[in-house]
Amino acid sequence: MLSKLVSKQIINHGLRLTTRAASASAQPKLVIDRKPPVKFQKLFINNEFVDASSGSTFEVINPATGDVITEVADASEKDVDRAVKAAKDAFRLGSEWRRMDPAARGQLLYKLADLMERDRAYLAALETLNNGKPFKDSYNVDIPHCISVLRYYAGWPDKMNGKVLPVAGDFFSYTRREPVGVVGQIIPWNFPMILLCWKIGPSVATGCTTVIKLDEHTPLTGLYTAKLIEEAGFPPGVVNIISGDGPHCGASLVKHPDVHKISFTGSTQVGKLIGIEAAKLVKRTTLELGGKSPNIVFADCDLDTAVEMSHFALFFNQGQCCCAGSRTYVEEKIYDEFVQRSIERTKRRKVGDPFDESTEQGPQISHEQMDKIIDLIESGKKNGAKLLVGGKREGDKGFFVQPTLFADVEDDHRIAREEIFGPVMQILKFKTVEEVIERANDSDYGLAASVFSKDLDKSIVVSNGLRAGSVWVNTYDNFDPVAPFGGFKQSGLGREKSEYSLDSYSETKCVTIKISQRNS
Ligand code: NAI
Ligand code: MG
């Protein structure tokens, strides 16, 4: 019943996150464990679970209640060093990993995906417990997407060809795509499992070894995945997974001289710091940062679809999406009706226990994030935007925020410029195509954008004019593994997913051989 209900909802949203995952019918009957046991709390280094060298731990909080779930190992600089050494050893020339056939690397990813499929219900429950996202999303969106992403990358290792080059003279010259080496990967808390898989996939496919630092709010599913990596048969040191904070643990991974590439997903503020540090040692860097994505609704759209998808574009995942459609520009002719329908939809949004079947919106990740959102809501009111729904904390337990809607938002309001990362929708009015393209592009960010219109010609013109890494037309959040994702401007550097991501995990080597014998 639950999966039927949710599949319907996902199809309605056009959300393609579940593509190529296992068919629902292949799954055993779903039993939801509202209190999944936490089985792994230690650092995963060299295929062993170890305590932090200092012995210290930190608390992991359930955002739906504010209660402590468990404590996990708190990695320090010394532990980062241990993990990097393991990754460096695994990358040594002649090691098991370096000698492994490319297709065998793919088999490891297939195996890991199979194990995630086996443990899908447990992983989804653990993700919901730790992150607060509705179980129906963890189960039907996040974990199936992880499986799809790993299977996508599993097909790549034996298909990354070099080229033979037509060099002048008696030479034979060819290129090889080689792994960049030891990679440091840092992920945030909004999609703990998905982002973990976006990082593991290209790193393993290209033959790199990695140290992944989980977010300090949401380490539980990543530490369980470590166990699956061991079970899948990865050689020791290929994937190391550690939990720790940003300023010490994360920063020491970024600075480590034996790490050749940093891949970071998180705030623009931290992304800039990481970019500066990484540049000191000329490390390769991919940064997937914040956004303030414009969603443009033209009068000739299908209004039902546009209202529902605009709601989804902003509110999905409690509004905690880097690509959230957080500036909804609506053409003047349909503005009033769009606002009215959006009010109705927002009022219907069901907030509550993330394990309940009917819940659409769970808690924000932390007290700090909740306070940031409330502060931005206050600024919206002060700046003169019209608050039409919500605007407050929901209840006094956990970190819930009411689904909130502002209309008559102006371009210079803080809520139209800053990333809110919460369930707060901004509706702005526009008149012409030229005007809306210019206003949509007037942002330091450039992660995603969308257009709602039945006029395909106009949609293409607008899509081409938008300065954003992903543009969705009459849909939102299409995250097929084959599609690249990343930002223009201060939304980042490089691309995640897709074959484009593989470039940033590989170096091009050119080998040139002198040919001494000639027969022509
Ligand atoms: P953050 O950028 O501080 O944290 C993300 C990751 O970076 C975490 O693993 C953290 O431990 C690590 N980190 C923090 N400081 C670091 C440093 N100096 N060196 C190395 N690693 C470091 O994000 P935070 O504080 O959790 O959220 C702040 C805002 O960032 C949010 O309100 C939201 O606007 C944005 N954000 C964007 C995300 C995205 O998907 N692009 C994800 C999470 C947050
Ligand atoms: Mg931070």
UniProtKB/TrEMBL annotation:
Active site (record annotation): 288
* UniProt cross-references to Pfam families, sorted A to Z: Aldedh (PF00171)
Cite the Aldehyde dehydrogenase domain residue spans from the record: 49-511
The molecular function terms in GO held by this entry are: oxidoreductase activity, acting on the aldehyde or oxo group of donors, NAD or NADP as acceptor
Q: Which UniProt keywords apply?
A: Oxidoreductase
Span of the secretion signal? none
Q: Which family does it belong to?
A: Belongs to the aldehyde dehydrogenase family.
User: What name does the UniProt record give this protein?
Assistant: Aldehyde dehydrogenase domain-containing protein
Query: From which source organism is this entry?
Result: Adineta steineri
